[in-house]
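#dry-run=false #mode=assembly
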Amino acid sequence: MSLTNRETWTLIHGLILGSLFLLAFAGGLAGFWSLRPELVTPQGVKDRLLRLKVGTTTMAVLAWATVITGTWVVYPWYRSKSPDSPKSLLLSNPDTKDWHEFGMEWKEHIAWFAPILATVAAFLTIYYGPRLVRNKTARSITLGFFVAAFATAAIAGVFGALITKAAPVR
Amino acid sequence: MSPASVDPSMGARAEAPVEDLGERPNGPAEAAILAAGIGILVLGILTTLSEASSSVADGLQWSNRVGPLSGKTIIAAASFFGLWAVLAVLLRGTSLGLRTVTIAAAVLVALGLIGTFPTFFQIFAPD
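#status=ok
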């Protein structure tokens, strides 16, 4: 049982960095959703905000690391001109070419939305801090960026998993 | 319900409101929000232009291994961080309106989404 260098990087990109980002979302969502004056005590706000600041910043870093490893490490192997590259294999069969022409073409671009949106969500969390509890507009906007970052990362992640299933990078 | 029958923990929540810290200026937040919208729009525009023109695609191919995606993503990320820095200075101590800026950014993100959607940008591919 062993992994090639390419399989290891694919694993780091998708299963470690990407999955950690997606998994962390549920905790962040619960934290933002309950960040209301009627639901938390001042001590609760303090604890929750610390977790949210650390969590959103970590998620932003994970999102950047995911797209950078995806674009600069794994993608060149995927799009290699050799006949056995995943892109060549997908395009060689009419039944699978849409995985590249729609799936990969969308994934490789929309994935880059996630780190930008996650960075803004992290910045707003740190910038407004405890004011997010009372400032409903700022809290809703921060939550909106956070959810949008997750949604775009999820689209990229789902396509990544399905494309890897159809034509893995080896 | 007499005061004695109130759950102490509930009472603590009701009687200890979150400290009012005053407002922070929205300018720096608006700078980040607007920069994100513009950065994503730049990615959408470059994606469509790259599909429509092989010379644009060649110009964006900053790495032969990565192809045009290299230029597109570097320019989009640089636009985001660069504009954020510029707007943070311009909007320091002022505000365009947090809600207004967010709506504008949402429109820019939606346009960027359209620009990066394959069904849309492939319309412009040369035959």
